[in-house]
Amino acid sequence: MTFSEVRALKRESRESGLQAVRDTFVLYRIVGVDLYPPVAGQSRTNLQFILEHEEALPNCQKRYLVYRIFDQEEEQKIVALLERFGATYTVVPFDRSEYARIGFDLQSLPEPELLTGPTMDLLSVSERQRLLMSLHRSKANYVIHNNGAKNSVLREGRGLAKWVLPFDGTCFFTNQGWRQFMSDVQHKPYLKYFVVPMTRVASNEDLLSERVECNQSEEPQLVFRKDAAESFDEDFTYGRHSNVELFWRLQVAGEWDHYKDDAWDQQRRTLSEEARQFGVAGWVARLSSGVADQEIEDREQRSLAHTSAILSTLHALDASVAGTSKETLVSVRELVLDQERRSSDPKISHLIDLIQQTAEQALSRGPYSVVDKTTLPPSGCAQDYWHPAPYWWPNPDTPDGLPYVRRDGERIPGTSLFEPESDKYDRSRLQRVFDDSFVLAMAWQLTGNQVFADHAGNIFRRFFIAEESRMNPHLVYSQVRAGYNSNLGYSSGIIEMKDLYFYLDAVRILDRAGSISRREVEAFSAWLDAYLSWLMDSKQGRKERAAKNNHGTCYDLQVAAIASFLGRKETLYETLARAQSRIGSHFAADGSQPHELQRKTTQHYCCFNLQSWINLSELAMRWNVNFWTYNPPRGGSLKRGVRWFLGFRQSRWPFPQNDAFDQDRFLPIWFAARDRIGDLSPTGRPETAYEAKPLFHPHDGVRPFWNIGSFGSP
């Protein structure tokens, strides 16, 4: 500060009367949640250390804000501790229903397709983590709203003392640090702010010796004179420049001056009118986090570990609020299914009888294996999944028929599901695994007949577990166009695994039935882990992720279903955020689907994509993510998409549709939408989902017996 600036501040202090006011202080500590993976009661441990070992600070009140501890038992222990020491405190409770309504912050994306496109593959690990953190900004600001909590105590403290110290809950004053702080403040009482350097300690016990010295290894804390105009920016999230934003505005110099903003970061405010009106006073210690990764010296690695811990905390909280675990079924509502199992409603009984009959038919088929096909993929390995691109035929103008040529609408023999020659390839066999296993599992769930579960277990064992017959965990040879791409498959072939989501529910049920062993479930999880890695990292997988139409929807459905089964919450929530970011481009403002309307069978593809969104939305709801309430800043919404499509149920479809369309396909969409958004015009007949057609062609994307374990009685 210049001499004239100091002189002006001194004059202002005298004229306001504050210079004559005795220096009094109120020190607030924000006691918040333990980050995941939690060290049991670490916040409480640090609080107890403060209460037991920090001495009374002259002219200073100590107060505590217990801020949104979502573990009620832990909150009660913290409050009991504060009561035992006679501390003054306030509790801001965690409201689970309020938190449950908070969604992703997709408005932070600099471009709508960032999460789906190739840019994601160019980001470093740190950049990717910071991007994901920005998508959880509102969630973090509710649970760990450091700036909001500090501003609340700052407002209160201005009426209690001349100086307000809104500090983190891990701050500890040694006698030496406080004496130095008092001296520095008294030396320059005309300043409105003081920066308090912070020292990180590896062990709290080190502070008892009074031999700890200030090394300024952490971002400092800020002290406010009661008339200071500034406060913390509540849009900035804990873990991403939450304190630093005010340092920038006040021109507090430090390593943060070299921090770079990401494209998705919050915009910095302009320079404060009270910039440079600060001094440096004393020092404070930061108590141990109890987590080794967050105590390492390298700042970037420590920041990455900290961001990962915040995300893991939020993901664990979302799962807790939703009451979901990896064992939870994602395509079937278990409470509804249990009610239906015990129901005497003849419509439901008839549907259960039909499931049992269909399961009995499945008993005569399988078990299946990819080694059963009568032709081999280009690799020559029978355990590689193999299916040629259906519309590509041998070239009549070349001696070897290569490269193949496309005949739009004409399928190569064997590429239509369940036709006689389809045993040459694996597509029909894979669909039988999915459909038969699901129906068999549901039949066991509804009747208790172990025969059904055991047969599904044999299908599972031969297709995915047995070393000599299991499928290799990739789709490298799906939809091969001979003579192209080194005879490898194309990204579009990944959609052939689209129904994995309901098959994984079948596996969960078989595990409960005891028809597959714990060791086999672990082996299958390893298979899924390998397949997921291929799906996310291969060239085919990355290209399918970037698909702008139903292929992108079905890709996200696969990844989310696998992540849900494996309990990979970070992958799961990244996928659900990515899926939500697609909604504005999949649906126009009027609800139409521009990408699907480019096809020759527009009604089929609009219906299929919408059905796929409903399947994915059902999974997302299990994990406290609601696509139905999302309104993108550009484009349409899932609600509008439903209303637009259902508007053609009673009227002629005005777009190209080369094939016949099954009008019953409107029903799964109507009943699902009515369940989520309510105000839809009546369907007429059937009046209940139980009376509707229960089985559709697999190409339609409708789960077998979609109308049970879904909506319950109307």
Sum up the structure in keywords.
Chondroitin_lyas; Spore Coat Polysaccharide Biosynthesis Protein SpsA, Chain A; 13 strands; 23 helices; nine-stranded mixed sheet
Proportion in β-strands:
5-15%
SS elements, strand count? 13
Distance between the termini: 72 Å
Q: What would you call the structural class?
A: alpha/beta
Radius of gyration: 31 Å
How many domains? The number is: 3
In helices, the fraction of residues equals 40-55%
The shape is elongated
Name the poorly predicted regions.
none
Largest sheet: 9 strands, mixed
Number of helices: 23
CATH class bucket of the largest domain: Alpha Beta
Query: What is the residue-mean pLDDT, rounded to a whole number?
Result: 93
The CATH topology of the largest domain corresponds to: Spore Coat Polysaccharide Biosynthesis Protein SpsA, Chain A
Q: Give the CATH architecture of the largest domain.
A: Alpha-Beta Complex
Pfam family, one: Alginate_lyase
GO molecular function, one term: lyase activity
GO cellular component, one term: periplasmic space
Domain Alginate lyase: 369-648
Outline the fold blueprint.
Layout: H1 3-16, E1 25-31, H2 42-53, E2 60-67, H3 72-84, E3 88-92, H4 96-100, H5 119-122, H6 125-135, H7 137-143, H8 146-157, E4 163-168, E5 171-172, H9 175-187, E6 193-200, E7 218-225, H10 244-250, E8 278-280, E9 284-286, H11 299-322, H12 334-341, H13 346-362, E10 386-388, E11 392-393, E12 405-406, H14 427-447, H15 450-465, E13 477-480, H16 500-513, H17 518-537, H18 539-545, H19 550-566, H20 569-586, H21 602-622, H22 638-646, H23 666-677
Parallel strand pairs: 1-2, 1-4, 2-3, 6-8, 6-9, 10-13
Antiparallel strand pairs: 4-7, 5-9, 6-7, 11-12
